[in-house]
Amino acid sequence: MSETATLRFKWSSPSLVPMQFGVYIRSAETYGKMLELTRAAEELGYYGVFLNDHVHGLPDGREPYLEAWTAMAGIGAQTSRIRLGHITLFNSLRNPAYLAKSATALDVMTGGRYELILGAGWNEPEYLGYDLMEKGRGMPSAGERVTRLKESVEILKGMLNNEVFSYEGRYWVLREAVNIPQPVQRPFRVSVGARQPRLIAVTARYADGINASGNLKNIDRILGQYHAALERLGKSVDDVYISGFAPSVYLMKDDEEYEATLRKWAGRGTDPAEAREHDFIGTPEALVEKWRRAMDKGMKMSVINVRPSSTIEENVEMLARFRDEVASQL
Fold first, then answer.
1. Does some domain include residue 303?
2. Rounded CA separation 181/220 (Å)
3. How far is CA 313 from the centre of its chain?
4. In a domain, 24, yes or no
5. Residue 134: in which H helix or E strand, if any?
């Protein structure tokens, strides 16, 4: 079992801190454009920039796709204020003890700006194509992936908060693993991206926070289960850090553009009523009300990808509009 002492961290209450937003930068594609978008987000005052952690593109894997850890380390070295993270780290790609060393190095290099959000892994072609589990094993069962993530969280928290740490689990055994220097951030927060009941329960018990992705319907379901799990453990929303990921946020200029977009979506099979109620699409006023619903569930930060935009210049323009017309009203 873990030798880490049980720790209860208090993160800022949602009633005292305004909603913050991070920027998803994978859509910029090249490193130069990612850096350009990051610098613009930094100047606009966004909380952080985030990159998904896959070894090839989705869905077919054929487009250019920079490895996420190296890319984010470069971006961290070329910025000064904005936070950095992955949405989410692919647990099966890295030994968790080595990941703790890497996260520490990036946190030290950037003066305490790294945000760690871990995911269990889900994309079978990556497991098969890169033999991630070795010896042709393929993708482990969902149960094994969740157990591996639970052990990774325990190891990360142990090493990120202790100079020497030992651990004995089902999949990893550490014998006085050394992590010196320690990260700049004290304590160092470890969150988990979770969508399914068992992983949500594991996240509530072992991690410092959760990342809930998708539209408001998904967020309501995920955070409803998360709140119930916290209550069973004697915890509250003030003991954890709740973040989100909205991969498509459509900021409309006015009601006319909003309705025209919903009609277009209806032609592709999307229910306009469902989109109006749950999706992050709408005029600034509509989006403010939708984000307030997420805030009512305890969400304190969300990573966003604001659309429509097809160039870096348009993306920056949309981010500026979102900041001024939506984020500033929360």
1. no
2. 40
3. 24
4. yes
5. none
C-alpha torsion angle, residues 279, 285, 288, 289 (rounded to 10): -70
Residue 225 belongs to a domain: yes
Helix (H, G, I), strand (E, B) or coil at 8: coil
Instruction: Read off the CATH number of the domain in which 222 is found.
Output: 3.20.20.30
Determine the Cα–Cα distance for residues 64 and 58; give it in Å rounded to an integer: 11
Nearest to 207 by CA among 218, 194, 220: 194
Per-residue tens of pLDDT for the chain, all 330 residues: 333 332 333 333 334 458 999 999 999 989 999 999 999 999 999 999 999 999 998 877 788 899 999 999 999 999 999 999 999 999 999 999 999 999 999 999 999 999 999 999 999 999 999 999 999 999 999 999 999 999 999 999 999 999 999 999 999 999 999 999 999 999 999 999 999 999 999 999 999 999 999 999 999 999 999 999 999 999 999 999 999 999 999 999 999 999 999 999 999 999 999 999 999 999 999 999 999 999 999 999 999 999 989 999 999 999 999 999 999 999
CA angle at residue 186 from 159 to 154, to 5 degrees? 30
Taking a C-beta distance cutoff of 8 angstroms, is the pair 299, 14 a contact?
Answer: yes
Task: Output the DSSP codes for 48-95.
Answer: EEEE---SS-SSSS-S----HHHHHHHHHHT-SSSEEEETTEEGGGS-
**Which string of b and e fits 207-246 if b means at least 16 CB within 10 Å?**
bbbbbbbbbbeebbebbebbbebbeeeeeebebbbbbbbb
Instruction: Show the domain range for 30.
Output: 20-249
The reported pTM is: 0.93
How many structural domains is the chain composed of? Answer: 1
Is residue 267 one of the residues assigned to a domain? no
Q: Which helix (H) or strand (E) holds 322?
A: helix 312-325
